[in-house]
What does this fold into?
Amino acid sequence: MELRVNLFTNETAGKIVKRMSAISQVLQQSALPQSTQLLVEIRASQINGCGFCTDMHTKDAAEAGETSVRLNLVASWRDATVFTDAERAALALAEEGTRLADAHGGVSDDTWAEVRKHYDEEQIGALVSVVALINAFNRLNVIARTPAGDYQPGMFG
It folds into this structure.
C-alpha cells in the first residue's frame, strides 16, 4: 500500500490532525475510563478497516496494561466473557455509531439505555465524542492510505 498523502507533513492536513489531537487530549482527561476509550477506538477502527488506528490503539492499550486476551477479543466482544457490562454498552455504541448508514435509526434505544445505565452525563458526552473523533481519524487515514505497523506508543507525545 502506498501512502497517498502524508497527513502529518501536509500543511493543511497537518493543522487539522493537530487540532483533532488536541480534542483527544481533552478526552483523555475526562471521567470516561481510558481503557474504555481505547476499546472503543479499537472497535471502530476495526469496523472502518483503519490499520493505522488499529495498530496505534492496540499498542497503546497494551502499553497501558490491557491484556492480550481482551485485545484479541474486541472484534468478537459479544461472545466474550472478558468485558464488563459498561464496556459492552460502550462497544455497542461504538459499533452503532460507526455504522450509522447501516441502520435507519442510527443508535438504537436499547443501546442508548444501556449506555445511560452505566455512564453519567459527563462520561456519555466523552463516549459520544470518542466515537465521533475516532471515526474522523479513521476516515482520514483510510483515504490517505496511512500504512500500519510502525507505530510506537507515545511517539506522538
